[in-house]
Amino acid sequence: MNDIDQRLHELGSTIRPPAVPLEEDLARGRRRLGMQRILTTGGAVAGVAVIALGVTVVANLGDDGSSLGPASAPTSAAPDARSKPPAAKDQRTGGELLKVYRDVIAEYIDPANKHLQMKPDNLQSGGGLGTKLGWTIPGQDGLGMVEVFVGGGWNGFVGASCGDPGTECSQTNVDGIDARIVEWNGSTSVVVEGSEATVAITVNALFGNNSLIPVEGMDIPLDDLVRAAADERLTPATPEQIRNAGTSMGFPDMDELGAIGEGASDNPVPTPPAD
Amino acid sequence: MTKRAQRERSFGEYVVERRGHLYRTAYLLCGDAHRAEDIVQQALTKLYAAWPRASRLDSVDAYTRRIVVNAHIDETRRPWRRERPVDAVAESALDRPVEDAVAPEDSDALWTALRGLAPGQRRVVVLRHYWGLSVDETAADLGISPGTVKSQTSDALARLRDALSVAATPGEQT
User: Fold this and answer.
1) Three-state SS for A181?
2) Does residue B38 sit at the A interface (CB-CB below 8 Å)?
3) pTM of the full predicted structure?
4) How far is CA B57 from CA A1, A254, B51, in A?
5) C-beta of residue A216 within 8 angstroms of C-beta of residue A201
6) Are the Cβ atoms of A36 and B49 closer than 8 angstroms?
7) Out of A7, A127, A134, A241, which could bridge A117 as a Cys pair, Cβ 3.0 to 4.6 Å?
8) What ipTM describes this predicted complex?
9) Tens of pLDDT along A218-245?
10) Is the Cβ pair B125, A8 closer than 8 Å?
11) What is the pLDDT of residues B67-116, one digit of tens each?
């Protein structure tokens, strides 16, 4: 045990946990479990309803796809699924995809590769896949951050909602691209919702997790962020890519380590084994 | 004994044994008694729901620790709670522990230095030096590469040792 270990343990021993009755922890757990069961049941019922509706629509289509009866109320899922050719399977690993994300946005905001971290070394997941990249300026000690995230709805990964105190949201249009701008807590996020995915690029002069010193003069034009976010090469990750992103980047295999848990959106966590 | 009674008995035994350690971990991460208790409550609530499966794992502690750390990561993302790194000397800007929860370490140089670290570095320090995890285990818990764990550990320890040496020789402060 080194000096810091020892001091930390001494420090920890001075912290006096509150006396919380076990029954309170049990009661909170029961409530959560009850809510989970309600949601699971509700989701299953909704899923059955959607499938039933789809089956009804398909069953009422004629050979030419025309509707035969009143049950063919318009739905989006069934006709789209019939008309779209199946997408080719993306063979890239999650790590390779993140490198593509990095290189694509670099073309817009750092074409000379002078500032943006070259190789992604962390994962952001939860509804999609992304990474936070460092931004340095030669001659400065500070570290800024550029995060790119490609996924579904934007609220889950920008880190702020438009209704939050201190958060300012606005809309912009660049070269015909509609984008949402979210300014929150020193960060500026640009969100472009495409047909395949929603892309968010967040910029902050301070990479808060990794540095105490912001960079000075991180002047990335907002228009370039919008154009980058709209680039069609920023395709959403497949479930397999999300699963293999960590190991393909050289992270330890959490299954092997047995270090599993639940929670944060940027921490790829396997679920416990099934019952 | 019913399934629910079995669950509550074994879960209860775990909570009685480990709640204190989880709370101390959360406190070291966030530096605030109320937020530490929030984090522990969240963790135990999730653990209860996952207990039938989690209790069969090799290490329930590893599972719970991960929930605690993840809850702290989520907390630091929320704009109204997001931590802003500060100079170690700007103590007035730091979250203060509630009175009576912790007193002695309030003036402890290590405590001040720990609060001066970026949240990510603090997590690495707590996992490696309070929980005693290896580089790989820490990387797996945090979802970052072992190289990042090493560099963050190295930088964080240098900062902590700097702060401690300055505190030990106050006359040398400028």
Assistant:
1) strand
2) no
3) 0.50
4) 28, 13, 10
5) no
6) yes
7) A134
8) 0.76
9) 888 888 999 999 998 999 998 889 888 8
10) yes
11) 898 888 776 665 444 444 433 333 333 333 334 444 444 447 788 888 88
